[in-house]
Specification:
This protein is α+β, with helices and mostly antiparallel strands and 238 residues long. Helix content is 22%, strand content 34%. The strands form 3 sheets. Strands 1, 2, 3, 4, 7, 10, 11, 12, 13, 14 and 15 form an 11-stranded mixed sheet that branches. A two-stranded antiparallel sheet has the order 5-6. Strand 8 and strand 9 form a beta hairpin. It is globular, with a radius of gyration of 19 Å. The two termini are 22 Å apart.
């Protein structure tokens, strides 16, 4: 029978803003001298929340966990559009915001619930002929992107104070939440962009069980091991 170390399994990290998902992987790998570390679903640098790390032989689970449904919460700013559909992009338009209520926003957002095709934004990591779209976008190049089928289970607003609405969305993997924000702004007629995003859950994993990255890095290996979901338990999360 294969023997597993205490650090063979999944580690749930609450990703801080201003770091890429790959940065988090590198920090954990270097700090704990691990040979293999992967993650199960990229978060944009500005986004925070649940990032599932798989350690050692548990990297074999990465594709299955990556395919799980996701839950996010965030904020949308209406009246301004950006080239990246989020607050990190360049402003491309500004329009007056009409009077809006939470009820009106939920009525408009309900149009996005269900199966739908979504075109990845130009500022994204999707590759065309091996080149990430964001690299083309930096050169001012815009190319045709193939739409992908996604499913939005819920898209609901919980608060609104002009021009910012707070929302929660549950969706399938590969959904660009910033595209949902942009498209909602287009539907309302004033434009919008994603102001902030936090991943709350992925499949059976929840951010409530995650460690802040700085907390994890301050731990000794024996202490961190108590927070690792053991390899032999991971099948129950599939």
């Amino acid at each position: 029978m294969q023997q597993f170390s205490p650090l063979d399994g999944a580690l749930l990290i609450d990703k801080p803003a201003k770091m890429t998902s790959h940065d988090v992987v590198d920090e954990v790998r270097r700090h704990f001298y691990l040979k293999k570390v992967g993650h199960c679903g990229t978060l944009d640098p500005a986004a925070t929340g649940l990032l599932i790390l798989v350690l050692g032989p548990a990297t074999k689970f990465s594709e299955k966990f990556m395919a799980a449904d996701k839950v996010y919460e965030g904020e949308i700013k209406f009246g301004e559009t950006t080239d990246s559909y989020d607050a990190d992009g360049e402003l491309t338009g500004s329009l007056p915001v009409p009077p809006l209520t939470v009820e009106q926003l939920n009525e408009e957002a309900s149009a996005f619930v269900g199966d739908r095709e979504q075109v990845p934004p130009m500022v994204s990591a999707v590759k065309i002929k091996g080149v990430p779209l964001y690299k083309m976008a930096r050169k001012g190049i815009e190319v045709e992107r193939k739409a992908r089928m996604i499913h939005v289970y819920t898209y609901r607003f919980t608060a609104y104070a002009e021009p910012i609405g707070k929302f929660r969305v549950a969706c399938t993997k590969g959904t660009y939440v910033r595209s949902l924000a942009h498209d909602l702004g287009q539907r309302i007629g004033c434009g919008a962009h994603l102001l902030g995003l936090r991943r709350l859950a992925s499949g059976k994993f929840d951010v409530a069980d995650a460690l802040p990255l700085d907390t994890a890095l301050a731990m000794k290996e024996t202490e961190l091991a108590r927070h690792v979901i053991p390899y032999l338990k991971l099948r129950s999360y599939e």
